[in-house]
Amino acid sequence: MSYSVGQVSAFAGVTVRTLHHYDKAGLLSPGDRSRAGYRVYSEADLVRLQQILFYRELGFPLDEIAAIFKDPQVNPVERLRARQRQLNEEIARLQRLAEVAERAIEVQRTGVPLTPQERFEVFGEVAFDLSYATEAELKWAHSEGQREAMARADAHTKEDWRRLMGEAADWRAELLAAFDAGEPSCGERAMDLAEEHRLHIARWFTSCPPDMHRRIADDFIADPRAFALVVPPSQQRPGLAAYTRQAVYANAARHADAITQGEENR
């Protein structure tokens, strides 16, 4: 039994244009023609179309489907297993995103309600980029520190945020003053400011040993959105993010030296 392009399009749920595209790509080229010269599909063609649609549903690109059909050495089971691993990874990623969204919903429902005026009062120009927050959540998904930081942030009251941001603003003013005065990033003043920032994180979010502080500072260079949480763009200067990172690294080295010195004095 044979079927016209229109009939196959109707019961397979694909457009005529898609069938023509499969024909042009060499994936599904019906060998028969009607008396009027139109393409007609055989039962074997329908079986092949079903296989194509199955692979497409799993996300296989057309060129990979063509390779499976054309090369007898290609093991379709191995391809399917590889695709299964990819799908499982994607499912896990989407699940983490769903958890991030759920947490955001809960914060909106039960978090501290702020009017736009209060939000500006508390946070000033510091803006929390949701895309960065989501990426950070995924990046540190398996970090106990990240989970603790999110839990403590969710629990902060409006007054907590006011005090926290006040501390951050005072620290930021000192950082800008040191940078503008040309203080070296490895100098005492810059290192002390780096230490204050590390203790600020520990006080309000999660314990922040020097190695973790270095990783946070690396993001200041890698992603402008991260440094914008520390210094709003309107207050930034060229080289300030690198200066801050260098101060953090110098302070971490100072900590390591102090530990070494202490061990030598035992």
From TrEMBL:
Gene3D superfamilies per the record?
Answer: 1.10.1660.10, Antibiotic binding domain of TipA-like multidrug resistance regulators
- Per the UniProt record, one Pfam family is TipAS
InterPro entries given for it?
Answer: DNA-bd_dom_put_sf, MerR-type_HTH_dom, MerR_fam, TipA-like_antibiotic-bd, TipAS_dom
Q: Where are the transmembrane segments?
A: none
Q: Which residues form a coiled coil?
A: 77-104
- Please tell me the species this chain comes from: Streptomyces antibioticus
Q: Which UniProt keywords apply?
A: Activator, Coiled coil, DNA-binding, Transcription, Transcription regulation
Write one Gene Ontology MF term: DNA-binding transcription factor activity
Q: Where is the HTH merR-type domain?
A: 1-71
What SUPFAM superfamilies does the record tag this protein with? Antibiotic binding domain of TipA-like multidrug resistance regulators, Putative DNA-binding domain
Q: What is this protein called?
A: Transcriptional regulator
Q: Where in the sequence is the signal peptide annotated?
A: none
